[in-house]
Amino acid sequence: MKANIMLLPGDGIGPEILTAAVQVLDKVASKYGHEFAYNEQLIGGIAIDKTGNPLPEETLRAGEQSDAILLASVGGPKWSDPSAPVRPEQGLLKIRGHFGLFANLRPVKTYPALAQHVPLRPDLLEGVDMLIVRELTGGLYFGERKEQGDGADSYDTMYYSVPEVERVAHVAFKAAQKRRGKLTSVDKANVLASMRLWRRTVVKVAEDYADVELDHVLVDACAMYLMTRPASFDVIVAENMFGDILSDEASVLAGSLGMLPSASLGSGTFGLYEPVHGSAPDIAGKGIANPIGQFLSAAMMLRHSLNLETEASAVEAAVDAVLDDGARTADIAVKGGATVGTAEFTQAVIAKL
Ligand code: NAD
Fold first, then answer.
1. Which residues of the chain have pLDDT under 70?
2. Is 141 a catalytic residue?
3. Domain map (residue ranges) of the chain
4. Residue 211 annotated to the active site
């Protein structure tokens, strides 16, 4: 197949890990007979430096011509002055809104080889393999807010409409159908009106998915269960802020921030794929960044936007095999053990492919 992919390297380690991911994609293309055309554009701090805008119009236009976007990371100390008129992260919020990306998918699994990096008992980690679906363009982060300055009352509003909940629920149910057929809907229906609407709507959507087993868990209890019985979860669907917090909590189960991919999806096949971590300015330019989160994001892109399931699974299997062989970037190194850099790890994944 032919596919147009927009690349957004961004800042910090972004260019290093995205270059590595393109090498992996090139290997996939040559092995399976595809043609991937890349269009590299600006976002984040580098875009501010070059154009004054964290998300230039040219980037948006190029994205509109693409089948998918592969993004690395944005931000860094150079642009982190809170009083600055423009900030790199504004580019991220804007691009999600522009493309109507309302569902954020974050898979989290544990790697037995990395168990020593996880602050939980190894027996609790056996079989942890979950997908968190976070609603991304509604809820508390997008409701009406008032900030009246020093000393005066301020508020934020958690607001949802039925269609907003329905569309993210459909994404979650469909994902559960392709996985182990279990969906946990997270809410706070015992206190919040918007969360009672959330629960009623999810129950109604469930009528279309008789093959999925649905349960409801309050967000506070869910935070606890993620640590006490993480292997019991298959797919979790949650309100924007709840999903933000729970997915960061769940990320510790993988052993390193560098391992985790994500996808932001709208109603069609188009999507934006990026690792969960930031631009890691402390290690930028050293050639030691862990590229796994970026590789697994590329695999999610192959699966969701390009419908290339075999190729996606092959990338995931290659990463697993390289880890099984013992290759470790510095963030996941065994204490006192040898480490490899980004380039060497990438070559190992390509060799497995
Ligand atoms: P971070 O995720 O960049 O780094 C946290 C720690 O994890 C650092 O010690 C870093 O070295 C390490 N780390 C992260 N990714 C790694 C990888 N692939 N390999 C090895 N180690 C890795 O978070 P931070 O330090 O809080 O933020 C740095 C900058 O990134 C800030 O400007 C922040 O705003 C931005 N940020 C961007 C995104 C994004 O682009 N989506 C997300 C989070 C933070």
1. none
2. yes
3. 1-111+256-353, 119-145+155-254
4. no
CATH class of 1-111+256-353: alpha beta
CB of 238 closer than 6 angstroms to any ligand 1 atom: no
Tell me if 259 CB under 6 Å of ligand 1: no
In the residue annotation, 123 being an active-site residue is answered as no
CATH code given to domain 119-145+155-254? 3.40.718.10
Residue of 70, 90, 277 with the most ligand 1 atoms within 8 Å of its CB, for mutation: 277
* pLDDT at residue 285 in the model: 97
From its phi and psi, is residue 273 left (phi > 0), alpha (psi between -120 and 50) or beta?
beta
- Looking at residue 11, its pLDDT comes to 98
Q: Is residue 89 within 6 Å of ligand 1 at its C-beta?
A: yes
Q: What is residue 22's predicted lDDT score, i.e. its pLDDT?
A: 98
Buried b (16+ CB within 10 A) or exposed e, 122-145: eebbeebebbbbbbbbbbbbbeee
Q: Which residues contact 108 (CB under 8 A, 6 or more apart)?
A: 128, 129, 130, 131, 132, 247, 250, 251, 253, 254, 260
Q: Using most ligand atoms within 8 A of CB, pick from 279, 290, 339 the residue to mutate for ligand 1.
A: 279
Rounded to 5 degrees, φ, ψ at 130 are: -130, 165
Q: Is 208 assigned a catalytic role?
A: no
Check residue 216 and give its pLDDT.
98
The tens digit of pLDDT for each residue in 181-229 reads 999 999 999 999 999 999 999 999 999 999 999 999 999 999 999 999 9
> Ligand 1 in contact with 276 (CB < 6 A)?
no
